[in-house]
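Entry 14. Structure prediction run on the chain below.
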Amino acid sequence: MHTDPDIQLMLRCGEGDNEAFRKLFVRYRTKIINYCFRFCADRSIAEDLGQEVFLRMYRAAPKYRPDAGFRTWLFTIATNVCLNDARRKRGQAGTLSIDAPIFTAEGTAMPEIDDPTGHPAGRLLDHEQETIVQAALTKLPDKQRAALLLRIHHEFSYSEIAAQLHCSEGAVKTLIHRGRRVLAEILTPYFKEGT
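Output returned:
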C-alpha cells in the first residue's frame, strides 16, 4: 500500500474518481503551467501544453502503476509534451532577442502565474531579471533547458531527471553543467555589478 497521497489520488482517478483527478489538477496546475511557460516562453502555448499534460494524465489513469513518485511521473509527461512541441516547431520558430521582453498579445510584459509580491520597484527588477533569464533559457537546447528547469525550479534529483529525460544520471549532470555554463556566458553582461 502506497502512503503518498498523490499516488492514492491517482490510483482512485484510475478507478474513475473524477474528484481525485480534480484534486490533483488543482494541486499541480500552476506548477505544470509555469514549467511549460519557462520551457516555451509563451503564456498561451504554456496553457495549451499544460492542458495536454493533464489530458494525457487523465487518459493514462486506468493504466497508471506507481513505479516512481507521482510528481516525477507527472513531470515526465510535461517534459515529453514540451519536448514534442519544441521538435514540432523547430522549423517554424524564430529567435528571441536576449534583451527583448516577453509580451502578451495585448502588448504587456508577461508575469508568471505566481508573481511575487512586495515593493513595486523590487517586483519590476525581479520581473526584468526573470524576462532576461527566460529569454536566455530559450537559447539552450531543449534537453538542457528541461534538465535545468527540472533541477532548479522543481528540485528533482538527478536520478528523477534521468528517468524523465530517458537518459543516464551522468548525461543529466552534463546537460545541467553545460546549460549553466551557457547561461552564465549569456547572462554575465546583464548581471555585472552596477548594471
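Residues 5-187 form a domain with the Rna Polymerase Sigma Factor; Chain: A fold (CATH 1.10.1740.10).
Filed with the rest of this week's runs.
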